[in-house]
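Re: that chain you flagged

S.,

Sorry for the slow reply, it's been a week of failed gels. I finally had a moment to sit down with the sequence you sent. For the record, here it is as I used it:
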Amino acid sequence: RFFRPQTIVNTDANHFRAGLGGNHDLTFGFSWRRHDATTQTVFPGNMISGYDNSVIDQRARLQREGLGTNRTEYLAFYVGDTFQRDRFTLTAGLRYDRQDGAALASDARANTGLPDVLPGISFPGYDTPFTWNTLLPRVGVTYALDDQSKTLVRANFSMYASQLDATTVGFSNPSGAVGFVEYPWSDANGDNFVQPGEVDTTVAPLAF
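Prediction finished late last night. Pasting the structure tokens below so you have them in one place:
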């Protein structure tokens, strides 16, 4: 299961006024967004899978639930002005972005067949040890070479910030990943299903 709910708040405003021999179109606003990324992996029954690889390699894979949530939060403010006078247009703006997040606390269930062999995870969570703060300028100039504005000369410069992603936030979050361990299996009753008593946990794991 993958859950990706988002909460978004946006406010945008415009103000028009004359000045400096031309017209100004002022824009400003802010946005806030919270994005939760939850990943859950569950297994049926006793959460043990049997692998009959060959007559000398039968093994049981004990699996643990994966359940974790990584949260990212984004806050932005911006202000800009488009000034137009005759054939000349100037657009200038400034944007501030703040990005951080957290790995939320979670409890992933143990293997139900052999919980003492493969226990669950109780993850306390953490806040990101960093916050991304960026101040981004944007400016553009347009000039019309004729009165009908059929030919334009333009120049633009803009900077954009990379978006913080949930994978980066959850880099040290172990709860979303599925845990497993493999041991030798002897199908004593020949039913092709693994019973906990058929798993030899007295030896070293074959894989984990």
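What I noticed first: The chain has a mean pLDDT of 94.

Talk soon,
D.
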